[in-house]
Amino acid sequence: MGRTATIDEGELVARLGEAFRQFGYEGATLTLLAKVTGLQKASLYHRFPGGKEQMAREVLDNAQAWITAHILDPLRGPGEPSARVAAMVRQVDEFYRGGRLPCLLNVLASGESMQGPFATDIKAMMEAWIGALSAVAIDAGCDKRRARGRAERFIALLEGSLVVSRGLGTVQPFRDVLKGAALELLGDQRSSRDS
Amino acid sequence: MGRTATIDEGELVARLGEAFRQFGYEGATLTLLAKVTGLQKASLYHRFPGGKEQMAREVLDNAQAWITAHILDPLRGPGEPSARVAAMVRQVDEFYRGGRLPCLLNVLASGESMQGPFATDIKAMMEAWIGALSAVAIDAGCDKRRARGRAERFIALLEGSLVVSRGLGTVQPFRDVLKGAALELLGDQRSSRDS
DNA sequence: GTCTATAGGAAGATAGAC
DNA sequence: GTCTATCTTCCTATAGAC
Q1: Is A7's Cβ below 8 Å from some Cβ in B?
Q2: Fewer CB near the last or first residue (10 Å), C or N of chain A?
Q3: What is the CATH number of the domain that holds A140?
């Protein structure tokens, strides 16, 4: 409608997020961020007066909201544990573009940014994810300790599979982890073939 | 003895490696690299005419040599599979400083450097590691397909546990993966408690 | 709210003395 | 082989017109 050719806010943050994930925090220069968003540097500063750090923070907040809504809530919600895990798998596959896009939590935990501005959010996100995975494992009959172990282990497996996929140049490791998610989290409940 | 106060070559590359692992390729500025080595920038360029990229490459080569000698060879060498895995675990623990130091393969696969100058070496190193792990699993009675799967899975678990350890601010996930390495790679051979 | 233009500084890399 | 001093380029950030 009678509007000037301005970029949508959600799309803007999404593009910034992709750039940070692909190139890392220091690797994502403002010139690059301007290019991928189609805006000029000054326009980016108009929307993010805090500069690059604010951009990364909003990307992180956005990811947290998306993950909470699309992954964590369904994971805790009603339904059979195996169905909930299957739903998570679909969303995770989308979130990581089938294994082609690195994890923001990995990328932003590098360098100075570690004990720096993002550490708290990263830790909170990981713990929220582990908590939700624990919950579904508990619903499947695990005791708390074992559930927590499986959850941590699955997150590690997921993050690691992204690293290995990138290193080997094939998304197969990522796919394998997604395929084995139910078995990994819920244990052997006669719902999977051997692997 | 009658020598000027010049830094040892091995120590030099080791310090550079630590810096790259902690701060990433773009995060490790020449000013920082000069600081951690105790040399001036010009001195670094004297030893590495190719600049930062050459430094990273030599760090990578050095890591490859160390891993081959201390981890891969013993893994293939003689001895009981479980003893070989135990030996690997000790060396891996040292290599990653008990889980406190990120993996070079993860850190250098970021950004442009991905399809860039290090991709080939990173892939080769991962495949060498996976190959050696497969070998020990085969010696423990696995068929080839399953051995390869376990090896890939273990590398992912290891890489991911470093990411999670960094994110959560505790090396416990890394420790857990090392503790479960034998079970993970060799299967349940009545040599481990449940976990 | 977006742009062009530019300030100010840090980055990678070199020159040349010792 | 290491240093001080410097070059050039790129980066983050801002000023100000439209």
Answers
A1: no
A2: N
A3: 1.10.357.10
